[in-house]
Amino acid sequence: MTDTISVDVSPLALSILELLSERPMHPYELAATMRSRHHDEFIRLNFGSLYHTVEVLERNGWIVSAEREKEGGRPERTIYRLTDSGRKVLLLTVGEILAEPRREYLHFSAGLMFMHHLEPTVAAEKLEHRAQALHALITKLSHLLDELLASGHTRLTLIELEHKIALLEGERGWVRKIAKGITDGKLEWRAGIDAGDERLRRKHGKSAH
Amino acid sequence: MTDTISVDVSPLALSILELLSERPMHPYELAATMRSRHHDEFIRLNFGSLYHTVEVLERNGWIVSAEREKEGGRPERTIYRLTDSGRKVLLLTVGEILAEPRREYLHFSAGLMFMHHLEPTVAAEKLEHRAQALHALITKLSHLLDELLASGHTRLTLIELEHKIALLEGERGWVRKIAKGITDGKLEWRAGIDAGDERLRRKHGKSAH
DNA sequence: ATGGTAATATTCCAAATGGAATATGACCGA
DNA sequence: TCGGTCATATTCCATTTGGAATATTACCAT
After folding, report:
1. Residues in chain A with pLDDT < 70?
2. What is the reported pLDDT for B7?
3. Could you tell me whether strands B63-69 and A77-82 are parallel, antiparallel, or unpaired per DSSP bridges?
4. What is the pLDDT of residues B37-71, one digit of tens each?
5. Å from A39 (CA) to C8 (C1')?
6. DSSP-assigned letters across all residues of A143-177
7. Nearest nt (C1') to B72 (CA)?
8. Best of A17, A18, A113, A130 to mutate (most B CBs within 10 Å, chain B)
9. Which helix (H) or strand (E) holds B178?
10. Selection from A57, A190, A179 nearest residue A116 by Cα
11. Do B34 and B43 contact (CB within 8 A), yes or no?
12. Are A127 and B98 within 8 A, CB to CB?
């Protein structure tokens, strides 16, 4: 029953484990490989975090530094390989991420929350602009996906790209719908009773004595 | 033309500016208010970041500490208010977030990227599990939305909740579709030419001398 | 050969983040 | 009125993140 304990592994850490499951690499090579596979499109990548995360993974015993080599003349480098426990963590984490939705904090949500501070016409313009930008992005990514499929990649290995495109299409539709709702007045532009919230909270704060 | 310069403001910072646009508050009250309005559902909130962010906003001149008061016997506290430049930043940032899509890094994408490490039956199970969890969440949030609308809130002030529900519904559909594709073999379960990538990269790395 | 740019590889440090620790008074029951 | 717990309010610190700085070799044009 100990395998129900879920370990928290960041996407970058997961990506490192995954690459090392293929063959041993040094951190810089991990970064280069992630970039060559466009993985940095989906996973935040920078050297500070990368080297730090590698250290943490080593401390956890999920990877070990196999050798420190000075080869071909290039700067010295440390090569890491995946351990058995590391491989377990990889599989466990992938399964858990797939199975359990988690709260994702989107910038766009924050924009929507405070949209009512803009004039309705301005808000509608901004959303229209967004819809167009989304459209352009969808076009670009769809072409990319087609090319990659044509060049022999399988759908399975490009599933995250397919997912991203689906997400963007959904967003484009929703954004257009809301923009339209604003321009033809179906989305009423007044604040509602947020102030009522405030009245309740007022019992703390300003009461005398 | 100076107003085209876009300032980078975190969602938490934006939220602080927005609350202070209503009336002056002290940081703890900001947190309490965000929670009472369920804003922490969409914006990452913790005390460390909150107090730190308030400091940064003050340094930028977007808010000022109006008074340091010891009132009602409660612990001493510092009350902040929004400045004119702060109000400008608020409007500018909301507009920009709405208009410009930005890359969002989702945990789920990382799961999908490495899904092929699982057995197809296992992957399908995980996705089915996710779809059910999403369904439960959608039900819960839809009820919440209905209640809030019934209690007098406007659609406009709940638009981010409406958006979240739409997102979740889209995801549920997509996840179900993929899970089905796996179980009936339409999503072919082999790796493709990622190794080809590797062969190309091989020119660095292992070449002799 | 030489000097300038690009690629390789890591380290360093400032900033942001998360969460526990601390402190103070309010409220309530025995 | 004493003690325990809850709400209020902030500070502190370890970790994580982002990005610039550094160092070494490769490659190419002159």
Report:
1. 1-5, 68-76, 193-209
2. 83
3. unpaired
4. 999 999 999 999 999 999 999 999 999 998 766 55
5. 20
6. HHHHHHHHTT--TGGGHHHHHHHHHHHHHHHHHHH
7. C25
8. A113
9. helix B159-183
10. A190
11. yes
12. yes
Q: Which of B126, B167, B201 sits opposite A33 (nearest CB)?
A: B201
Q: How far apart are CA A77 and CA A149, in angstroms?
A: 35
Nearest to B109 by CA among A92, A103, A158, A42: A42
Could you give the dihedral angle defined by the CA atoms of residues B3, B9, B11 and B14, in that order, rounded to the nearest 10 degrees? -60
Q: How far is the CA of B162 from the C1' of D20 (A)?
A: 41
Distance CA A96, CA B175 (A): 15
Tokens of A146: 């087609």
Torsion angle, CA of A34/A39/A45/A46, rounded to 10 degrees? 30
Residue A164 pLDDT: 98
Residue with structure tokens 């990506």?
Answer: A15
- B79: which strand partners? B67
Dump pLDDT digits (tens) for B137-174. 999 999 999 999 999 999 999 999 999 999 999 999 99
- Judge whether B20 and B14 are in contact, CB under 8 Å: no
In angstroms, rounded to a whole number, what is the distance separating the alpha carbons of residues A185 and B156?
A: 11
Read off the pTM: 0.89
Which chain A residue's Cα is nearest to B106? A104
pLDDT in tens, B88-126: 999 999 999 999 999 999 999 999 999 999 999 999 999
List the beta bridge partners of residue B73: none
Q: Give residues 164 to 203 of B whose Cβ lies within 8 Å of A.
A: 164, 166-168, 170-171, 174, 178, 187-194, 196-198, 200-201
Whether B157 and A191 have beta carbons less than 8 Å apart is answered as: yes
**Shortest CA distance to A167 belongs to which of B175, B133, B138?**
B175
DSSP letters spanning A56-114: HHHHTTSEEEEEEE--TTSPPEEEEEE-HHHHHHHHHHHHHHHHS------HHHHHHHT
Residue B12 CB: number of other CB atoms within 10 A?
24
A26 Cα distance to chain centroid: 24
DSSP class of residue B67 equals E
B139 CA, D13 C1': Å apart: 41
Q: Please check whether the domain covering A11-99 is classified as CATH 1.10.8.100.
A: no
Match 């995250």 to its residue by tokens.
A160
> Which of A22, A191, A198 lies nearest to residue B157, judging by beta carbons?
A191
